[in-house]
Design a protein that fits this description.
- The structure is a single chain.
- The two termini are 27 Å apart.
- The relative contact order is 0.15.
- The chain has 150 residues and is mostly helical.
- The protein is elongated.
- Helix 2 runs antiparallel to helix 3.
- It contains six helices and no strands.
- Helices cover 81% and strands 0% of the residues.
- It has one domain.
């Protein structure tokens, strides 16, 4: 093997790695899965405003929607890779921030005397989650590329 052949092989490996990471990021931010997860989040969070038998049904429906979407998302993934520790930490912090946003919006709606405060807070949280996913995509992509082992 010549030096040119070795360099060509390394370039091909790097190119395939880039293709793999691009496919992973593209699938992670596919719009249908984002919409399903936002609907599941909205359904679960707005269930606090419903009376007793219906709130349980809403929580179950929202969790089924979110978990079903996650299952389909994982099954249809063109690339499978383990999430790195920094990626898991980033998603955990984002989840905690969404919870803080939800409860802050619910308390603000309570003090403003608005009706259906949890539903309003759920709408704010779901819209914020969608907006944050688009705004934070470059950050997540850089985290994935920094830890880019596929």
């Amino acid at each position: 093997m010549t030096a040119h052949d070795a360099q060509t092989a390394l370039d091909a490996i790097r190119h395939r790695r880039e293709q793999t990471l691009n496919a992973y990021v593209r699938h992670a931010y596919a719009r249908p899965y984002l919409v399903v997860s936002a609907l599941g989040l909205f359904t679960v969070c707005s269930s606090f405003d419903l009376p007793s038998p219906w709130n349980t049904a809403a929580v179950l429906a929202g969790n089924a929607l979110a978990l079903g979407g996650l299952f389909v998302h994982q099954r249809r993934a063109p690339v499978r890779r383990k999430a790195a520790g920094s990626q898991v930490l980033f998603y955990g912090v984002a989840g905690v921030l969404l919870l803080v946003l939800f409860w802050t919006a619910a308390v603000a709606a309570y003090f403003l005397g608005l009706p259906a405060r949890h539903t309003l807070a759920a709408a704010v949280t779901a819209l914020a989650a969608v907006a944050a996913s688009y705004a934070l995509r470059p950050v997540v992509e850089s985290v994935i590329r920094r830890n880019g082992h596929c």
